[in-house]
Specification:
Elements: H1 2-17, H2 21-24, H3 33-39, E1 42-53, E2 61-72, E3 78-83, E4 90-96, E5 106-115, H4 124-128, E6 135-146, E7 149-158, E8 166-176, E9 182-193, H5 195-202, H6 206-212, E10 222-234, E11 240-251, H7 260-263, E12 268-279
Antiparallel strand pairs: 1-2, 1-12, 2-3, 3-4, 4-5, 5-6, 6-7, 7-8, 8-9, 9-10, 10-11, 11-12
Amino acid sequence: MKRLMLGAACAALASALGMSGAVMAGVAPTGGDVDVASKGAGGYVGLGASYAPDYEGGDDYEARPALFGKYTWESGRFVNLGGTAEAGSAARLSVNVIPQSMRENWHFGPLLQYRQERSGVDNDKVDDMNDLDAAIEAGLFLSYLRDRWTFTLAGAADVSSEYDGFISDLKVQYTWPMSKTWTFTFGASTSYADGNYMDTYFGVDSRDAVRSGLDTYNADAGFKDVGLSASAHFTPWKRWGILAGVNYYRLVGDADDSSPVTDEGSENQIHGVVAVTYRF
């Protein structure tokens, strides 16, 4: 019953968002977060469009709505809606439970992730494989802030029994407030996935080989991708702003083009987003 309720809640959240979570990783606006926290409760929300592959490892791109945001209480605790720092299409909802009075430079708390399904993709051979339903993941994150640098380690396990594994990511981000109206953010990331995740999303079992004509392939645990990100946040108005960002991921290990799933697409994954932001 608990799993059913959790699944229904996360599915409703993801349905409402209709977003590609991967696009949000590293490009959600960070300029202004410090000001909001120091002045008391407040936050921001962003709404726009994202552009990303229709499956992890694909080379056919599609546009989707994008939604992200953050709210910070006076204590320094916050709830953040964004994405994961890896090439998969996953939305992340995280909550910092450490008050600023205890650990000003540390954030820590639980997270929920919604990983989008793989079905109806443009590539005929991959589409002939068994569809992958959306996955719900739960885990923890830990961030350390130093001047303009943010280091974040996050990990989550599948709680929906879609792939029965786990995935983690590490992100380093630098925020440069160039002026009162321009904030630039640059980041680098890598992710690690266990064998269940890798084999589910990049492997080809005997049944899928018959359906698709692809060679059988077993993908083992290991580092899945490395990435770079950059964004620009333009805020000439008191509350409104415009955000543009791009992420580049290179699939590595058993997720690279040695996988027939990736070989049908590309090991180079690009995610972009353009959005309007509103501070409150």
